[in-house]
Automatic annotation (TrEMBL):
Gene designation per UniProt: LOC115229275
One Pfam family named in its UniProt record: Adap_comp_sub
All copies of domain MHD, residue ranges: 1-168
Superkingdom to which the source organism belongs: Eukaryota
Protein name: AP-2 complex subunit mu-like
Length: 172
């Protein structure tokens, strides 16, 4: 996770961070060529915060013949060339749960092999620092710029962006 403090400071950490989203995949066979796939996206951050520009990418089998979106919060679309469903959510508050339910048909029964290492990826933006870092004060020491205390605006914007965020699952 990278943190940018108004162009002055970046840092990355991999420890002590609770993941902001939990993704659950439920696969149910309807008949020999058709399955129902339910993806549950739960936000694990404060109810006072919200995430924006959320995109959940759900990979499907290359042998998928038909995808029907049954229920969705936001917008979802199957892209045949990429063999994936892209679920877009503009805004999601913390402590919420959204579901995407799709029916997936494959060309032939022999194609119904579960994909090992099928990773659902999630991209998002949140105005919060999940690492817990806080800026107590900021002092600018640039004598040649002639800054005075009243010229400096003391304001910090905390923002988290995902890098690579994938969830392993087994589905068609």
């Amino acid at each position: 996770m990278w943190i940018l403090v108004h162009g002055l400071h970046n840092y990355r950490t991999n420890t002590g961070i609770d993941l902001p989203f939990k993704v659950t995949s439920i696969h149910r066979e309807l008949d020999k060529n058709t399955s129902e796939l339910t993806i549950i996206l739960k936000s694990n951050f404060s109810a006072n915060s919200s995430a924006t520009k959320i995109v959940v990418c759900i990979p499907l089998s290359k042998k998928t013949s038909k995808v029907t979106i049954l229920n969705v919060k936001g917008k979802a679309k199957y892209k045949r060339g990429e063999d994936a469903i892209f679920w877009n959510i503009k805004n999601m508050n913390g402590q919420r749960e959204y579901q995407l339910v799709v029916s997936v048909a494959v060309m032939e029964e022999s194609c119904r092999v579960k994909q090992a290492n099928a990773n659902i990826s999630v991209s998002f933006k949140i105005e919060q620092a999940f690492s817990g870092i806080k800026i107590r004060y900021l002092r600018i020491l640039e004598p040649q710029l002639n800054y005075s205390e009243r010229d400096v605006i003391r304001w910090v914007r905390y923002q988290s962006r995902n890098g690579l965020y994938e969830v392993r699952c087994d589905h068609v």
